[in-house]
Design brief:
With about 250 residues, the protein is an alpha/beta fold. Helices cover about 35% and strands about 30% of the residues. The protein has one domain (about 1-245): Rossmann fold (3-Layer(aba) Sandwich), CATH 3.40.50. β11 (about 215-220) and β12 (about 225-230) form a beta hairpin. α4 crosses α5. The protein is globular and about 55 Å long. The structure holds adenosine-5'-diphosphate and magnesium ion (2 copies). One magnesium ion binds near residues 40 and 85.
Length: about 250
């Protein structure tokens, strides 16, 4: 589903990704671990198409298309979802307005009919319920005044509504207490564990991987994938740290 080859990317002329290659097959969950500053969030932003991130070499194919050729909204309409390490607050726009516009703009871009207000509300309520998020939060401005855990749950509600093919989740587990971690882990499994979907799970810790079992684990250090293995690699890293890979 996703094939990244020799990807080089820079911010403000500083090279951050330095020849990163990675392939995620349909139906698989891959975890990316790695020391701070390795380029994990940068990888997410480059795949999402954030401005300011310049690809200088390499290629990314998503579902047979040249991903780097698509505008960010086209990537989203093609089924790519990026969950942020730090979800942004958007005062003045309610969660419901925001999510309905996001979903309907994607549907229109795919040539599908937009959902009516009533249809959308039904979907949003079902997703909020499934995540254990209070329905009142759907009416509040996007993430404004939400706790860290509520923001991450809200990201999962958003993912449930948009139903992407491929989700990149950047430290969705950071700052969560045990109950929120379980809710988010269950949400990822329920929404994304399917034969036609894939996930790239960026995390610092083994604990999320106790809930969402990865098929493969990679270590990203200094802008490249330096090691790959099965779930046992995450346990080894938790025990022994990144050592020389962090240099
Ligand atoms: P990680 O998510 O693995 O902790 P990041 O992708 O956030 O790492 O950052 C990788 C490197 O890029 C770091 O050295 C960071 O300081 C640098 N970096 C990130 N954003 C910017 C920016 N806007 N301008 C310059 N350097 C940046
Ligand atoms: Mg970091
Ligand atoms: Mg990061």
């Amino acid at each position: 589903m996703l094939k990244i080859e020799n990807l080089h990317a820079e911010i403000d002329g500083k090279e951050i990704l330095k020849g990163l290659s990675l392939e995620v097959a349909t139906g698989e969950v891959h975890a990316i671990m790695g020391p701070n500053g390795a380029g994990k969030s940068t990888l997410g932003y480059v795949l999402g198409g954030r401005s300011g991130y310049e690809v200088t070499q390499g290629s990314v194919t998503f579902d047979g298309q040249d991903l780097l050729d698509l505008a960010p909204y086209e990537r989203a309409a093609a089924g790519l979802f990026l969950g942020f390490q730090y979800p942004v607050e958007i005062p003045g726009i309610s969660n419901v307005q925001f999510l309905r516009e996001a979903l309907n703009s994607q549907r229109r871009a795919r040539g599908e009919e937009a959902l009516s207000g009533a249809e959308f509300l039904k979907l949003a309520r079902a997703q909020a319920d499934a995540l254990g998020m209070n329905q009142d939060m759907l009416k509040r401005p996007v993430n404004v005044g939400f706790s860290g855990g509520e923001k991450k749950r809200n990201e999962m509600v958003q993912m449930g509504i948009l139903a992407p093919k491929f989700a990149i989740l950047d430290e969705t587990d950071s700052g969560l207490d045990i109950d929120a971690l379980r809710a988010v882990g269950d949400g990822i499994n329920r929404i994304m564990r399917a034969p036609d979907k894939s996930v790239l799970l960026i995390t610092h810790y083994q604990r999320l991987l106790d809930y969402v079992k990865p098929d493969k684990v990679h270590v990203l250090a200094d802008g490249r994938i330096v090691r790959s293995g099965g779930p046992e690699l995450a346990q080894e890293l938790e025990r022994e740290g990144y050592g020389e890979m962090a240099a």
